Amino acid sequence: MTVDARKETRGFQTEAKQLLHLMIHSLYSNKEIFLRELVSNASDAADKLRFEAVSNSDLYEGDADLKIRISFDKEAKTLTISDNGIGMSREEVIENLGTIAKSGTAQFMQKLTGDQKKDSQLIGQFGVGFYSAFIVADRVVVTTRRAGLPADQAVRWECTGEAEFTVESVEKAERGMTVELHLKDDALEFADHWRLRSIIKKYSDHIAIPVVMQKQTPVGDTEKVELEDEVINTATALWTRSRSDVTDEEYKEFYKHISHDYAEPLSWSHNRVEGNLDYTSLLYIPAQAPFDLYNRDASRGLKLYVQRTFIMDDAEQFLPLYLRFIKGVVDSNDLSLNVSREILQKDPNIDAMRSALTKRVLDMLSKMAKSEPENYTTFWKEFGQVIKEGPAEDFSNREKIAKLLRFASTHTDTAEQNQSLEDYVARMKDGQEKIYYIAAENFNTAKSSPHLEVFRKKGIEVLLLSDRVDEWLMSHLQEFEGKNFQDVGKGELDLGKLDSDEEKQAQEKVAEQLKPLLERVKSALGENVSDVRITHRLTDSPACVVVGQFDLGAQMRRILEAAGQKVPESKPIFELNPEHPLVKKLEAEANDSRFSDLTHVLFDQANLAEGAQLQDPAAYVQRLNKLLLELSH
């Protein structure tokens, strides 16, 4: 066959040009990370070959000895990283090396901080690690052939870091990929055996296949030398080693390898399980959230190996969705090498592993919360809202998850979510039977809600909920340690033993006395309310609106409406504070027109205090101005 020597010149899109410019001109503070990224890519290529070769051993082409080779030529100013992994076809080269935005360039650009050291570490997390080569090289040449394709269907990709790159067909006898870097004059330190060796040991010692370099060995007493291959890394899958043989630094570097995260993990757990199931797991809790954390459809899950053979990235079957931020590896001896995502969904062993791995993660978090509170605070700020999805998704672990939850509360009156339910229960008043909370659109609205007035007066703590997920969370978390939750903005307020018998009798007497007022107010508001009643939850405000006990809360209603969903009609209950001067004035008002205006103003103000939007703001302003004018005369 003849070689198709088509040579194309193609252009990068705008975001790719910006990224390349950034690589070349800005990210110089930690140049050596380029080698970590390229070695990591080569390791991934080997994993992918192993996976595809499970069903097609011909892809090995008679060479199953996978390795990564690094060489340099100081005089030519070149550094070469080669692998005999899966390689790429012409189409894959164009797709993966020519379309950078496919890997998250836009999000990468948005995350840049201006701190060169941090920004240079970001590149792997967003799948653009290959382009870190341009930190040290002014020209990069990639020669690659996909396993299984003939030698004359290899491809050469070349780029100088400008707006264009070229692709042409060439011959390549060996499968895999070779990346040749033409080093800049200020990067010649990387054409040095000991410098390269130290970087590999630092970043890539955990790579499961050999990383090989040539070294010169003297021959006897002569001046002759011979070149020998030297394996630089440990070349053993880290999770297969004993925990006592793995250092903290090795664990941290392995985390960066599998997660492409520049920050060190907060914690990890490395375990071997033997018995009915035989598997090893290495799980990590990250220190920062990935850019796509709240995209529930994004790729997630653990790296799956079967008998040390890579099977798939993002095996989501091993952990529930609310733990989608967990990174790590699971290596099973019980699954088939031909396992697929569909088979994983039906295998009862997977359910048992999922249950055990979920429990392990929750135990890791519980331990962190108790023994490393500062780390747990960091974790909660990054992942707290995702953990709040847990009670709805994982009934069997609801109590464990509940102990991990953190909230703002009137105990501190700050927006910091640092109060646990266990702490709340420990502080409950004598006779208090419920855990009280209020849900609002934001923290300030929750903190300033008139519903809290009687609780502040009596010194009863209330949880202040303002995350979008909170009301949904509470609909699935009815009780904690035998204490039911009560939304103070829903239904009738019953403080149980926290109100004395004398207080309850006085409240009933006042409600009976003011029945005529309540009927008059209800008539004035008409279809705007479902009921009007006297309240004893207020001490400073004249009135408030309350949601029916079984109706959607205002926060949940707004979320569903914003999502375009139809929600059932419901009307609020209007409650009046009989001790407030404005309510007393309302009771004494004989003029029906002025009574109606004052009633509507109090109703609208009560809605505003809840963070609601008025149905007719102009009418509210007109009524308020009218009343102000009457007062001024």
Care to give the gist of this entry?
This protein is α+β, with helices and mostly antiparallel strands. It has a nine-stranded mixed beta sheet, with helices on one face.
Structure explained in plain terms:
With 633 residues, this protein is α+β, with helices and mostly antiparallel strands. Helices cover 37% and strands 20% of the residues. The chain is built from 22 helices and 22 strands. The strands form four sheets. Strands 1-6-5-4-7-3-2-8-9 form a nine-stranded mixed β-sheet, with helices on one face. The longest helix has 24 residues, at 348-371. The protein starts with 6 loop residues before the first strand and ends with a helix. Mean pLDDT is 86; it is low at 123-127.
Helix content: 25-40%
**Number of helix segments?**
22
Shape, principal axes of CA atoms: elongated
Uncertain runs? 123-127
Number of strands: 22
Rg, alpha carbons: 33 Å
Strand content: 15-25%
- CA-CA gap between termini: 103 Å
Biggest beta-sheet profile: 9 strands, mixed
Structural category is alpha+beta
- Biggest sheet: strands side by side, in what order? 1-6-5-4-7-3-2-8-9
Mean pLDDT, as a whole number?
A: 86
